[in-house]
Write a structure and sequence with these properties.
mainly alpha, two-stranded antiparallel sheet
């Protein structure tokens, strides 16, 4: 059962604040007049007002005796109903209460929950269940629709049961739809996952569920092999394409919690759907891990290149100083007095008879201007080259834009992978031997940055006809890393690096829902009106910020820049004395006792449960949750010290719990 606190189902605070009392429980003059008109005694008048204000707040009727005491006193004071002892329990049992509820519904223009409201609940839940899985989400959608149609809210149990029925019906329908898309050979392939060759050997299902561990760069080869294994198990066009990602994730979480025996016990349609969901999720997770490892390895490669450039500059600093000194003397010779021939002779003396070594040193220095460390990458790239190309074979990279330049470059380096020459041609002759014969480029290099272009192409060619093979490979791999992070490249089947355009709604859906959404957020949906509204809001916000700036102690201008100061923590007066008193008077309490007491007061273990979202089937779940929290939050020394002081029966139970926890 879904918990009330997980949903938007309205509830009353047991101890409302003064602000809540004023905003929620203050009757208007019209409401006070209505109460006086309908009632004859102070008791029924107070009961009517309490029913009215709680109904306004909740959208459903409760016993007035369950209303917060502070709220009842607040209403009684404002209605001048003092001097008697309220007996709201008697009012709740009276016929007047039921009659007043009918008046309240009519006054608030709310229809009592009935068949029509029930139809709204089931219709809204069925629509939401196609894209949502959690019971709390379905209940929230139903509550929103009931409020929008001015229907009374039913008991929470009614909404919970409806959500369960709808989710089960929609899930069963989805199972059948997925199952019907499978061929006989594909069903046999899925059934083999749950069969083990012997009693000792594990099934493929257990291997599929196993956590592969942390995706480290040193284990890249293992992940590539895992991806190849999962790719062979994938079933294309399995029917999962019509199921939203959030539902597939929930189905995979349910499948993850089931062993092979329990999977074989369920219906064929559900078993196939859960298996496909887990296969798809594990495949997507592996793609994500591989893409992340590829990005990290490229980043590591560039980091080593930057370090190599720093080392080079430290080692050549003396030669750089010599070049600057020579250049200084050349300038001094040029700026000296005398005839031009005399000055040129002085400059030649400084340069020497052979200026080529100086030219070479200057060109070598200029090659690294702007921290261009790319030329150092080749020394580190050779060790990663084979792995990078194997990743290219496994990762199905696609462009999310119309620009296919990088995709063409990827195909180019894959085609020339086995070449050994330093330079490879990037042009081809078309219509050879005809009047239309021409040389056309095979690659579009417009996307290549200038730092890479100087290394990739021959600087002596104005129109490049060949490219440096290794530098071009490095450039392509570097841009694959960048565009995977930006979303310009995507990996089909991946979660983190998938096509984000596929997650957007269609233009048809937008046109159908834009106007309603605009009303909900109070914004115009027409283009020009939207722009004007946002401009006006920005002007208002800027004006408010400007007016508050002189008194804002957390902002200042320094050197024409806005500086945001860190807010100083202000401790209340007497805090140190209060802490000292607490430490002196507080008695030592076991953490496990604190956990047990707070669980009894707050029922915080209700937030725990299986990842699948279904009800837990473990024995003594509350004790297990408390023990798990204790073991994770405390060191084992404290655990042993606590258990030593407990009787034998408690120790046996605790040992059993800890053993079960270790097994699960």
């Amino acid at each position: 059962m879904a918990s009330v606190h997980e949903t938007a189902y309205p509830r009353l605070k047991r101890n409302p604040s003064n602000e809540d009392l004023s905003a929620i429980y203050t009757p208007t003059q019209e409401e006070l007049a209505l109460a006086k008109h309908l009632t004859r005694s102070a008791q029924t008048q107070l009961g009517f007002l309490v029913s009215l204000k709680t109904y306004q707040r909740l959208g459903y009727a409760i016993k007035t005796s369950d209303a917060p005491t502070a709220a009842v006193r607040h209403i009684a004071t404002l209605a001048d109903l003092r001097g008697f002892q309220p007996d709201l329990a008697t009012y709740d049992r009276s016929k007047a209460h039921q009659r007043h509820l009918r008046v309240i519904r009519s006054y608030l223009q709310i229809t009592k929950y009935g068949p029509q409201a029930s139809a709204v609940v089931y219709e809204s839940m069925e629509k939401a269940a196609l894209t949502k899985h959690e019971l709390a989400d379905l209940i929230n959608v139903a509550i929103e629709e009931l409020v929008r149609h001015r229907f009374e809210l039913p008991a929470f149990y009614t909404l919970d049961q409806a959500a369960r029925e709808v989710r089960k019906a929609v899930a069963t329908k989805q199972y059948e739809q997925v199952s019907q898309t499978l061929k006989r050979t594909e069903r046999v392939k899925l059934n083999r996952l749950f069969v083990s060759a012997s009693l000792v050997e594990k099934s493929l299902w257990n291997r599929l569920k196993e956590d592969p561990g942390k995706p480290l760069l040193s284990r890249l080869q293992e992940w590539i092999e895992r991806l190849e294994w999962l790719a062979d198990l994938q079933i294309p066009n399995s029917g999962l394409q019509d199921i939203p990602a959030v539902k597939i994730k929930a189905l995979a979480a349910e499948a993850q919690s089931l062993d092979a025996a329990r999977m074989k016990e369920m219906s064929d349609a559900k078993r196939y759907t859960l298996a496909l969901a887990l296969l798809s999720t594990q495949y997507a997770n592996t793609l994500d891990d591989l893409a992340e490892m590829f990005i990290k390895r490229v980043r590591q490669l560039h980091h080593k290149g930057a370090e190599a450039l720093s080392d080079y500059r430290r080692k050549t600093q003396a030669r750089t100083d010599e070049l600057i000194d020579i250049f200084l003397h050349v300038l001094l010779a040029f700026d000296s007095e005398g005839r031009i021939t005399t000055r040129f002779k002085s400059m030649k003396i400084v340069i020497g008879d052979d200026p080529q070594p100086l030219i070479d040193d200057c060109q070598e220095h200029l090659a690294y201007v702007g921290n261009n460390y790319f030329s150092f990458l080749t020394r580190f790239y050779r060790a990663h080259r084979a792995v990078f190309f194997r990743l290219l074979e496994q990762l199905p990279l696609c462009s999310s834009t119309q620009d296919q330049s990088l995709i063409n470059a990827i195909e180019f380096i894959k085609a020339h992978r086995s070449k050994r020459s330093k330079w490879v041609p990037m042009t081809q002759i078309v219509n050879q031997g005809t009047p239309d014969e021409a040389v056309v480029p095979m690659l579009d290099l417009s996307w290549v940055p200038s730092k890479w272009r100087s290394l990739i192409t021959d600087p002596q060619q104005t129109t490049p006809t060949k490219i440096h093979r290794l530098y071009f490979e490095l450039c392509v791999f570097s841009h694959i890393s960048l565009e995977l992070q930006s979303g310009d490249l995507y990996i089909p089947g991946s979660n983190e690096f998938g096509d984000y355009y596929s997650q957007l709604i269609s233009w048809e859906e937008y046109q159908d829902s834009a106007e309603e959404y605009g009303k909900m957020i109070n914004l115009p949906t027409e283009g020009k009106a939207f722009v004007q509204e946002m401009k006006q809001r920005l002007r208002t916000a800027a004006k408010t910020a400007d007016q508050a700036f002189p008194t804002n102690a957390h902002l200042s201008f320094k050197k024409d820049r806005l500086v945001i100061h860190k807010r100083q923590r202000q401790l209340p007066e007497g805090l140190a004395e209060v802490k000292a008193l607490i430490e002196r008077k507080i008695k030592p309490v076991s953490i496990l006792d604190v956990l047990c007491d707070t669980e009894k007061w707050l029922n915080w273990t209700q937030c725990f449960g299986p990842l699948s979202g279904f009800d837990t089937k473990i024995i003594d779940p509350v004790e297990r949750y408390i023990t798990t929290t204790f073991c994770y939050g405390c060191n084992y020394v404290e655990l042993i010290q606590y258990l030593i002081l407990r009787p034998k029966a408690f120790l046996e139970k605790a040992f059993t719990l800890l053993t079960c926890l270790q097994c699960t």
